[in-house]
Amino acid sequence: MNASPQIGKPRATVIDDLSRAHCVLVGPKLFTQAPKQLDSPNMSTPSRIKTRILILSDTHSATPSKNANDVHAAFRPPLPRADVLLHCGDLTMIGLLNEYETTLAMLRDIDADLKLVIAGNHDISLDEAYYARKGQSMQQWRLDEPDPDMPRKARELWTGARAREAGVTYLDEGTHFFALKNGAKLRVRGGAQLNPQLL
Fold first, then answer.
1. Which of 73, 84, 149, 151 has the fewest Cβ atoms within 10 angstroms?
2. Taking the domains of the chain in order of start, what are their residue ranges?
3. Are 61 and 92 in contact (CB under 8 A)?
4. pLDDT per residue as tens digits for the range 136-156
5. Would you list the DSSP string of the chain?
6. Model confidence at 32: pLDDT above 70
7. What is the pLDDT of residue 144?
């Protein structure tokens, strides 16, 4: 089966109970029930909306262009157009601001109507408590001076104007509902960052 391009294993975010959300995952395509059918008392013959989901994970600040000449790499251009892009974590190697900026620029260039992102265990500066305990010492070999304000800067990058301009939505922990441009509805449970201590 030909699956969507993926690096490593998806982490932390789960498309919430596809059967209850009236969705069926078939290979790289997700078929969701039309919104008018979701509220219908007779759901025996639901209409379907084809929804393409591109799932990325563990990109660690890499971009598809780095693999342009490697025919065996799944993460290479051109990435397919998608209704939903879901980046399941490990946006960076060690949570540095320039790594986040590289990943945000890469996500901006992907053709997807909805772009969802969660942090992984390598994205240590998006976990403020962990960063305060260990993050600065983990980054010291890459920074001239530790930056105690790194968690605020990282969070601002992913939740602020630059992320909005790139069409990216950073998911905090919880359940999130989205109405897609193709008319489908999507419910995503996630945003809980994996423990950075798993590094």
1. 149
2. 96-173
3. yes
4. 888 887 877 778 899 999 999
5. --PPP-SS---S-EE--TTTTTEEEETTEEEEE-HHHHT-S--SS--EEEEEEEEE---TT--GGGGTT-TT-SS-SSPPPEEEEEE-S--SSS--HHHHHHHHHHHHTS-EEEEEE---TT-GGGSHHHIIIIIHHHHTTT-SS--TTHHHHHHHHHHSHHHHHHTEEEPPSEEEEEE-TTS-EEEEEE--PPPGGG-
6. no
7. 76
